[in-house]
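PROTEIN–LIGAND DATA SHEET

This sheet pairs a single protein chain with one bound small molecule, zinc ion, given as SMILES. Inputs appear in the order they were entered. The predicted three-dimensional arrangement of chain and ligand is reported afterwards as a token string under its own label.
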Amino acid sequence: MNRALEPRQIDRLIQAATLVRDQAYAPHSHFYVGAALLMEDGEIVVGCNVENASYSMCLCAERVAAAAAISKGYRLWKGIAVASVGGVSPCGACRQFLSEFGLELPVVITDVIDGSYKIRSLKQLLPEAFDGSLLPTHA
Ligand SMILES: O=c1ccn([C@H]2C[C@H](O)[C@@H](CO)O2)c(=O)[nH]1
Ligand SMILES: [Zn+2]
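PREDICTION REPORTED AS:
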């Protein structure tokens, strides 16, 4: 199966992630992040980071987008773009969270300053991932 994103899909994802970044609630870090997930049917589901005065409760944009997609009934994703100043990679927690739904996922890591990006698979970002297959309750 060809999992590579087409240039047009990459553009759409970057545009959506950059746009939703404006909605980020980040009064504590002032670090604004947007994420956009591409569904198998072409739909895009977005998320931004949502912070809290109790810092450990902060939600990353990637997990907000992933939870929104699941809530809409989407579990098959073609790619995700993450937009921030400097183009940060998803944190470890988000890598693990996203991996639940497939390690082949292409991650488009975008710097909103100049629009540059790089693409890495989740498998590259999370080698030797814990996938729950050894859990006694695994189906
Ligand atoms: O990939 C990342 C990295 C950080 N953040 C958020 C979490 C927190 O609100 C702020 C600073 O870490 O940026 C994300 O949303 N995604
Ligand atoms: Zn994260």
